[in-house]
Amino acid sequence: MAARRIKTGRRKIAPQKKIHCNEKISAFNLRDEEIERYLVTGENSGLLEDYFGPDEYEEMRRLALRATGRRAKGPRVLILPGIMGSRLGKKRRFPIPDDLVWFDPLDIAAGRIADLALNSGKSYDPLGVICIFYLKLKQRLVIAGYDADFHPFDWRQGLERLGRELADRIRKEKAEKVHIVAHSMGGLVARAAFDGVRKKIGRLVMLGTPNFGSFVPIQCVRGSYSMVRKIAFLDVGHKAEWIAEKVLSTFPGLYQMLPSPKKFSSLDLFDPDVWPEDGPRPVQPLLKGVPGVQEKLAPGKDGFYLIAGVNRETVTGLIRDKKEFLYEISKEGDGTVPVKFAELPGAKTYYIQESHGSLPNNSLVARAVAEILDMGSTNALPDAWTPARTASWTVPESKLREAPVYDGKRGRRLSQREMRCILDEFVSPETHEDEQAPGTGGAEAFQKEDRTPSFRNIVVGRRRQHRIEVRLALGDIRETDAEALVLGVFNNVAPTGPARALDERLGGAISEFTERRMFNGSLGEVFMMPAGRHNLRADTILFVGLGAFDTYSGEVQKIAAENVVRTLVRSRVDDFATVLMGSGSGEGIASALYNLLDGFIRGIKDADKDGRLRRIILCEVDFERFNLIKEELFRLSGASLFEEVEVAFDEVVLPSAPEAVAPALRERRVSDPIYLIVRRKEARAGVYGFQCSVLGAGNKAVVFTGNRNVARADLDGILKEIESESFTPEGPNGTGKRLGEMILPPEVSIILKKMKERYMVVVHDADSSRIPWETVAVDGWFPAKEAGLSRRYLAENLSVAKWLEERRQDDVLNLLLVVNPTGDLNGASKEGERIRAIFTDNPAVKIYELREKDATKGALLRAFRSGEYDVIHYAGHAFFDAADPAGSGIICAEKQILSGRELAGIGNLPSLVFFNACEAARVRNGRDLGKRHLDMPRRIERNVGLAEAFLRGGVANYVGTYWPVGDEAAKVFSEAFYTSLLKGFTMGESLQTARKAIAGKSIDWADYVHYGDFNFALKAA
What we know:
Helices cover 30% and strands 19% of the residues. By secondary structure, the protein is α/β, with parallel strands linked by helices. The chain has an eight-stranded mixed sheet with strand order 15-22-16-21-20-17-19-18. β11 (314-320) and β12 (325-330) form a beta hairpin. α6 crosses α7 (185-194).
């Protein structure tokens, strides 16, 4: 049976394949989708670190996570690799690995390159691209909003055949227009396909395409090319000349990239007699057909673009000596293709100082490509180039053959880096981005900047409209001498890192403001807090909202930074310190720094007309990151970013922070949580679309977003099982496992499992609230039962939470029991008796009671506003109004409704409302109490609706149940829960203590749901 494929965003990903150490496997053998999956989940990290290199692996992970989080139905783009950039082999049924020949270093070493000869009798297909060369480009385009995918092809074949295959692919594409980004030979394939599908092709962007050929195919056919000799070094059984004559000379695609007579006419290369007699020679029939194929390629036109590499030693001419070719070399090319051979009349050309093989991996090239696809032009690269005044020189073919390609004995094992770079001349994982600053245009783009080891007294300025100092500070932001400290905060995410460090200095003030929902982190929202007499040099602390982490982007970062400047300028603040906001959520240092500075400068130009703001201080405690930020500032110093401001760069080392005093128990937090945001997305009729986004924890916290489509009938079927007597969330076929597999994308599950020690915060919208997250399992692991789970509601305008701080300091837990107001629920009466019996002899708990007809609406309103209670424990009916959630509430005596809306204007509310589902009915419109039993979807809906009502009313925490709890389980749970709260433990810790007290004895451990702050404590220690 074929393995089932699963969807994540718009990308199909095969189920996880386990890699065993005894398999002949390397990352070169992995399929494209497997590599993309492992980059997201962190699986097989050692394998991929060897493949990409340790530093590049981290960069690729960051890009993969950002790309997955930004899957959008943007313009369709096909990425065509260059020659040798597609993997060739035989596809096998999963999970058996494909039979890969190119490029599998082990097979090449074993001599299987001979199998690639087109006359070998063996047939191979394109299996994908070589990801170290092209995956970065794809991820960067996806991040930019494009629906990008690869079009691998068998680069051995002729352009006519490859053009027809591409045209067929384009015809089958559902998009009205398809853009093409093509590297090297891929551009020729696109031109070969163009006439057949010209109406459907949007823009064509070629990267280093040899539109009029190159001299490299000559060297390949002759066996003198360095790349051919490197392959021969790896393959101990075949010499370079044999590989050239028996394998490469059979490839029509290679011949068709010979220099065109339109650009090179000194020798008639299509006459076999012109080629030297000694050494490998071309195959005459293949040579003869080249001019006709080149003539049929589509000419340049509007919508065609070229990015050409320059200033690399390139063969730009050829002469024939007696017995060999002599190659003329200059810097008028990208190392493989001469500039004049790349330039196509009618196509707009941009230039960059980069080598041919590195063009797809260059971030500036990717930025330029995205802008060209979007606008038809780019400012990222110059559109003019002046060759350097350097002389050309000649190298004989014999000297190329004698040059050693690797040190050491032929056939020795290559290092990982040597393996990655074996095809450097055609495709390369490495770039030369340090030679050009992002955003630089014109001839200065090719002038390598002198680097200075320090920022002391560096001034960058063009106009004196604004002047600003950017100071890079190594150390703790709390020790910065600035008027204001600025931190970014995600919506529904507790402050961490620098914010938590500041919280300690401020005595827990930030924690309390967060618990009270005084600042919710909405995009661009600003919250200013005076530092007062706390031990800080700054006068003000400013928090700026970054919105929900699953919608975070570079533009979000710019908006937040812009609002920071506007606020501080209006507040007459002259300088401020901040940290690199956003770099810990998937954004790399380079893009995070650029976006942050861009936003600050936009705010300065728009709001600071008087030039009041004079200094921005960027703080970083990690020395390695400090140096990376510094390097990026150097790179940006010549960018267009600073065209309208004069910037002075400086750097300082901050004094060490004093030792922190251990906080009180209720302020002490457990490890950072892992956050899961779940939203309903549009799907077809009868199908739910769920978008799940995970924010990891720690220094390498990143965001991953995946999508799942779930048949409504399947989800309702599982929820209906919860009602049955045989229901159990546990076990290999339990509801929890099946619900997790149904809702959570595989990558999300893998990421969650890696952080089992951390509690989970599920942030969901109204439509996703119907999932009983407390019952969800991931491969037998239940987050709710193990480390803990709390919920937050993804809703706007929740009321500020209101409780009396003095209640926290009181050693006595005041609990108001509201029991069976309507007098028709025996279970509610039993619940009241049970709670009273548990704490009758406990002097630390005082129980007050409103029972049946005494529990009037007026009595309950007085109780809520009195400020005397820590907890209101309600056992009775609930009223739920889906059309008006704030109007939902509890049913009092005489069937009056006390809604959450009526609590909004009341201060001093209890810290916790505990609602016990004593088979209360969902009542709406006529408030009919006749239905006593609800199905599970309605129970969940009612419970969530009631939670939202109380949260909107200003209650800090809500605990409820989905189904009626067994008597013994309810007794044990309540006793463990309230006793733990009395000892000063947090809501989350107390819930975990209570869940574990009944786990193994009853499934009711999964019945309880908590909305609020996991770290909220009702009582001080």
